[in-house]
Structure formats: structure tokens, C-alpha cells
Design a protein that fits this description.
heterodimer; A: about 230 residues; two-stranded antiparallel sheet; globular; disordered C terminus; B: about 250 residues; mainly alpha; flat
């Protein structure tokens, strides 16, 4: 799903860079404020970013039988919020371009827009919406991760369709073409990523619940709340 | 450490200023993207390859291992351009100019990828990050990137070991076991990342951590000769491409 180096014409590369810039700048301001208020959060944010980077090294079994890697955009947005994910995602994409030759520098803006902006915001919106309707945490996590993944692919399809309009039917035909290719391969992957994210959050609820409470994903159970109140 | 970064640490151009290599590598990439793919792509690719294998001293095998990844993406990405959807020739038909567009895209992306690889194979990320503050990137963002870079390698290392242990315990024998193992891997890396950050935090606190991560940046001077050579190379690539295009195409 990373758009490879040199894939987009120069004007498109610049335009997607400009479209991503406000979101990344907003994230940079949020991150700078957070670090100035709590200097120790530098290390936690670094750990969060490293976790996002490492997620792309995991191979998930796809429903179709093939294998791919998770985007981590949904999980990242649920755990660390979309503004911070815009910055962490940008740094991750830069590292992937330089260290793994995935993506590229001229296509960084387009990749940031799909993977660090649109995907996380869409996934987080669905997650918050479902949590607002008192849906169980795991249902909200599944759909958050599923939609983050799916929206990432849809935006990538739009980016490619705009860059390479179909010779006969223009942008619409090209969008159908790229959308069909992505739908065949990526809907099963989005389901896989949703399932994986649920499994990860379930494991984290058992092993690192305090971290999830600090990040606002889990709430103190009444028993623990009473215990804390007693301690205070 | 990842292979490209490991190669960059022992590169012949390691001691050169990162800005020089950025101007050359990114300059070649931008030239490849902006010039007409034919004959620009092959000309820029040939010049970049000559620099990579010649003065920069990158081993051919290492370069191929890194280059085949973007090349694979370029091939699969170019395939849809061969087809047209919903036109008068039927729902799916061969696009009349499809092969030409796909070939042009391949030429452009492969030349552009080589430019980025030239920069990546000669400049370790640890040389670039601390200098970004001087380029105007806020210090907290650079600090977060530095921590990401350092913890990232340790996590990848521990991930490989956990994966080995899971495989030894038949963790990948069935579909359900594979799912459990991957989820376990992701959760373990989350726990280890935060655990490592907490230990780093207490270690730094004991040394008077004030919120900034100070690292030693080796002093290197910008070579005007190198920059002038880069400008001359880029200008001549543009000129040769445009002249050839005018004369023969």
C-alpha cells in the first residue's frame, strides 16, 4: 500500500505533501506541547513510535491464505490519538523509506496522507462512535482497525486514480480499476488486521492494563477503583 | 540493525556531510521524477548506478537485495496501467497506450528509487536525525525520532527471538496457532517498548535528564567541490536528456 518512490508525477507529489502538512504540523504542535509539559513523555512517545514501526515487520495470515503486514494505523490511533499518530506515522514512513526501501521520499506526502492522516482519523472516528453508543470495547477496536485499514486503501486508490486516469473512462474508470484490485486483496487484509488488533488489545488488557488505562483505552473496574480510593 | 543502515555505517562516504549526500541522492531522485521517463529514466539510473557501485563503494549484491523490493512494487504497480475499465472495448480491455505508460512508469520509479538508495546506503539515519534540529524541525520531534530509532532496532531484535521461540514451540503449525503467535508478538513488542522506555527514563533521570537528548554529532565540513560536482552532474543529466529527446524523439 506504500506508493513507491517516483510513482507519482511531480505535481501530485507536491499537492499531497501540501495536503498532509497541516495535519502533521497540528500533530507536531500537540507533541511539542506534551513534551514541554511532561519531558518524560519523549521516551513514551518514542516507544509508541517504535511499536508502530515494528508492527510493519509482523506478518499476518490473510483470510485468502496469503500473508501481509498490518498497517498499525487503527491500533496506533486508538492507543495514541490521531494527531500524535500523524507525527509518529510520518517518522515511521520516513524510516521505512530510508531503512527498508518501502515507500519513498517524493511520495512521502501521499503516503502520510493515506496512512498517517486519513486512516487513523477514520479508524478513530469509528472507534469513538461505537464507544459512544456503549458498544463493547472489542467490537469498537475491531471496527476501528478495520475502517482505518480500509480507508487507507481507499485513499491510496483515489491517489493512484488521480495520477493515472483511465485512457477511456478517466478518473472514474481508474478509481474502479484500482478499487477493484484493492477490494480483492485488501478487504480480507482489513478483516485480518481487525482480528489481530482485537487479539492484541485482549492480550494487553491482561498484561498491561495500567498502560491502557493511562492511554484512556480501558477504564478502572469498580473493584480497582475502590482499591485506589482506599489507598488514597 | 537493518542491512541498509548497517551498510551506511561502513560506507566509503560515511564521513561526508549528510547534506552533500542528500543533495546528490534526492537531487537524482527529483531529476528522475521531473525529466521525461524516456530517455531520462535510463540516463539518470545509469549515472546513479555508476555512483553507487563506483565512488560510493556499495556492494552490488547488497544493492540488488535492497533494490529488488521497490522494483517488485513498481512491477505490480505498473500492471493496472495495461488495462482499461468500462470503455467502448468492453468492461476490461487492453489499454491502447497501456504498455507505453507502464514502461515509462517503470523507468521513472526505478531511476528514482536508486537515487534514494544512494542516500540511504551512504548516510546512517543516526547521522541525519540530530542535524534536523538545525534544519528547523522542533527538537522534541527529533528526540522522539531518535528514541524510536534506537528502541526500534532492539524491538526488531527481540521480535526475531520471540518468533524463533514460538516456532520452536510449534506456534506456527496451524492457522489458529499462527494467529495466537502474531497477536502475542505484537503484544510482547508493546510491553517491551514501554518497559524499555521506562528503564531508559529512570536511567536518564539518574544522570540529570532535563528533557533533551544530547548526542555527539561528528563535525564535518561541507565540501564545495562535492556540491559543485553534484550541481554539474544534475545539470548535465538534464541537458543530455533534453537534447536526446529533441534530436531523436
Amino acid at each position: 500500500m506504500h506508493i513507491a518512490e517516483g510513482f507519482l508525477p511531480p505535481l501530485h507529489a507536491v499537492a499531497w505533501g501540501a495536503a498532509s502538512a497541516p495535519f502533521v504540523l497540528h500533530g507536531v504542535r500537540a507533541l511539542t506541547r506534551e513534551v514541554k509539559a511532561n519531558p518524560e513523555s519523549t521516551l513514551l512517545l518514542g516507544a509508541a513510535g517504535a511499536f508502530t514501526f515494528v508492527l510493519s515487520a509482523l506478518k499476518i495470515p490473510s483470510v485468502t491464505g496469503s500473508c501481509s503486514h498490518p498497517t498499525g494505523t487503527g491500533l496506533g490511533a486508538i492507543l495514541f490519538r490521531p494527531p500524535v499518530m500523524a507525527v509518529l506515522g510520518t517518522i515511521t514512513l520516513l524510516f521505512q523509506a530510508l531503512l527498508l526501501a518501502h515507500g519513498g521520499l517524493t511520495t512521502l506526502g501521499a503516503n502520510v496522507f493515506s496512512m498517517a492522516v486519513a486512516g487513523p482519523w477514520a479508524g478513530y472516528a469509528v472507534y469513538r462512535l461505537l464507544r459512544g453508543t456503549r458498544a463493547p470495547l472489542m467490537v469498537a477496536v475491531f471496527f476501528g482497525a478495520f475502517f482505518a485499514d480500509l480507508v487507507t486503501y481507499c485513499v491510496t486508490s483515489v491517489q493512484l486514480a488521480l495520477a493515472f486516469p483511465d485512457q477511456a473512462t478517466g478518473f472514474t474508470g481508474s478509481l474502479v480499476k484500482f478499487g477493484e484490485i484493492f477490494a480483492l486483496t485488501q478487504i480480507p487484509l482489513a478483516v485480518s488486521e481487525g482480528l489481530l488488533t482485537v487479539l492484541v488489545v485482549r492480550l494487553l488488557m491482561q498484561s498491561s492494563k495500567s498502560d491502557l488505562i493511562r492511554l484512556g483505552v480501558a477504564k478502572l473496574t469498580s473493584g480497582k477503583a475502590n482499591q485506589e480510593a482506599t489507598v488514597r | 540493525m537493518l542491512p541498509i543502515d548497517a551498510a551506511a555505517h561502513s560506507s566509503r562516504w560515511r564521513r561526508r556531510h549528510p547534506l552533500e549526500k542528500a543533495v546528490l541522492g534526492v537531487g537524482l531522485t527529483v531529476t528522475a521524477v521531473c525529466l521525461p521517463p524516456w530517455p531520462g529514466g535510463p540516463i539518470v539510473a545509469a549515472a546513479t548506478l555508476a555512483l553507487l557501485l563506483g565512488p560510493a563503494g556499495v556492494a552490488g549484491r547488497q544493492l540488488w537485495r535492497a533494490f529488488r523490493i521497490p522494483l517488485g512494487f513498481c512491477f505490480t504497480g505498473a500492471l493496472p496501467l495495461l488495462f482499461s475499465v468500462g470503455g467502448p472495448a468492453g468492461f476490461v480491455a487492453m489499454a491502447p497506450d497501456g504498455p507505453r505508460h507502464a514502461a515509462e512508469l517503470l523507468l521513472r520509479t526505478s531511476a528514482a528509487s536508486l537515487g534514494v538508495l544512494l542516500f540511504a546506503f551512504t548516510t546512517p539515519v543516526s547521522d541525519v536525525l540530530p542535524r534536523l534540529v538545525r534544519a528547523g524541525v522542533p527538537a522534541p520531534v527529533v528526540d522522539v525520532a531518535l528514541v524510536m530509532y534506537r528502541i526500534g532496532f532492539l524491538l526488531l531484535d527481540s521480535l526475531a527471538r520471540v518468533r524463533q521461540a514460538q516456532a520452536a514451540r510449534l506456534g506456527n503449525t496451524g492457522r489458529a496457532a499462527a494467529w495466537r503467535s502474531v497477536a502475542g508478538l505484537a503484544a510482547t513488542s508493546f510491553v517491551r517498548a514501554f518497559d524499555r522506555a521506562a528503564r531508559l527514563q529512570s536511567g536518564l533521570a539518574g544522570r540529570g535528564y532535563d528533557g533533551t537528548l544530547r548526542v555527539l554529532v561528528p563535525e564535518t565540513a561541507l565540501s564545495r567541490r562535492f556540491l559543485a560536482g553534484t550541481a554539474a552532474l544534475l545539470a548535465s543529466l538534464v541537458a543530455v536528456t533534453l537534447v536526446l529527446k529533441e534530436l531523436y524523439l
